[in-house]
Amino acid sequence: MGWRTLIITKPAKISIANDQLKYAPKDGEVITVPIDDISVIIVEVHQVTITSALMSRLTESNIVLFTCDKTHTPNGVFIPFHQHSRYTQVAHNQIAWSEPLKKRLWQKIVSQKIRNQAKTLEYMGKTKVKQLESYAKSVKSADSTNVESAAARLYFVELFGKFNRKNENDWRNSALNYGYALIRGAISRSLASHGFLPAFGLFHHSTLNAFNLSDDIIEPYRAFVDVVVAEQYENFIELPDTRFLPEHKVELYQLFTMNTVIDGVATTLLNSVEVCVTSLMNVTLEKDVQLLKLPVLVNNDG
Amino acid sequence: MRLFVFFDLPTGTKKERSHATRFRNMLIKNGFTMLQFSVYVRVCKGQDMVSKYLDITMKHLPPKGHIRAMQVTDKQYERMHILIGEETVEEKNVGVQQLLLF
Predict the structure, then answer these.
(1) Known Gene3D superfamilies for this protein (chain A) (predicted)?
(2) Domains in chain A: how many in total?
(3) How far is B66 from chain A (nearest CA, A)?
(4) pLDDT tens for each residue of B3-52
(5) Are A19 and B56 in contact (CB under 8 A)?
């Protein structure tokens, strides 16, 4: 199981030599990293050459590789395919999810999402924590009363003040999208490696989206991104510049190693994704919603 | 945690050289880097990983020679004095960092 995140920001060739990842920059020394230590690779620039042997080897160790667009935001993800030994069984079970099971799972996910949002507000020293916590308790099966959106309205205004999630010129939106994209990729990788079909979701069911299930699972993880961006916003508030700068991004790379608690055990965010997806597999086999384990946001300062 | 492997292997005959090369290549393929000739080290996250790579090494031992393995903590490793020479490329750029920004 890998534990390193690799970010390629300079023109280079990456290949495989002696079962090590070989990073050969245009100017500079060749560096090797043991493949099995890596969990995520983000290719940030367009002047990087990747060999097919390396890509094939990445899937064997279940390593996810992101490509980015011109603004360095992840826009593509390379994940293992048909890796799990019981691939067909898991996929069959997933397709056979009953409507009541999906509804109860979605209820649990939304409830944890709102609870994590409450924690974000608490750590940022904001109010309305109690109100969100009571929202979390009132989520009905399938979130039929749409508490999720009511909570989101309250939450974003409290967290960021005057803020419109749709405004593309606000760097906070760029930062949030960037962070969400990273976590979404990590979830998709884990789902694929367990034999799930990310296209078939619990609540999300867009026929244009190949990652509906990832978009369900990501919900409780969004608060982790929010808290990092909110902290940045408080520190950078004096800056007149509204662009999303590389120095903002470096903070978001820490996302994968953030502390969290899942199933009562403290671990890193990246590990918790694995625990969460494994628990979803158990839910699928046992048809018991209680088996689903979701991450709890904990204070990462100090 | 760092796992060291120190070895002295006979290289008198062709067969012995082949055994020695095979052992060395096995170390490199498993993520060990050369600190000095016949001194290899691997970064490990925790005791489980140390045991894993120690097991792998023990399964691929050559028939003759002297080989030792030793584990030290990252703190102890950092206190190592370099008397002549300099850090290796991997020590400088990879080390125990979780986030590698290349």
Answers:
(1) CRISPR-associated endonuclease Cas1, C-terminal domain, CRISPR-associated endonuclease Cas1, N-terminal domain
(2) 2
(3) 24
(4) 999 999 999 999 999 999 999 999 999 999 999 999 999 999 889 899 99
(5) no
Which of the listed residues A22, A47, A78 is the one where a domain comes to its end? A78
CB contact under 8 A, A7 and B31: no
Q: A33 vs B100: CB contact, 8 Å cut-off? A: yes
ipTM at complex level: 0.84
Q: Do A230 and A284 fall into the same domain?
A: yes
Q: What is the pTM of this model?
A: 0.76
* AA identity, residue A274: E
DSSP A45: S
Residue A174 domain flag: yes
* CA distance to A116, A120, A140, per residue, from A300 (Å): 13, 11, 31
How far is B33 from chain A, CA to nearest CA, in Å?
Answer: 9
Look at B98 and A257 and tell me if their CB atoms are within 8 Å.
yes
pLDDT greater than 80 at residue A129: yes
A48-73 per-position pLDDT tens digit: 999 999 999 998 888 888 888 776 66
Residue B39 β-bridge partners = B6, B36
Burial profile A99-123: b = 16 or more Cβ within 10 angstroms, e = fewer: eebbbbbbbbbbbbbbbbbbbbbbb
- A299 pLDDT band (50/70/90 cuts)? confident
Q: Is A204 annotated as a binding residue?
A: yes
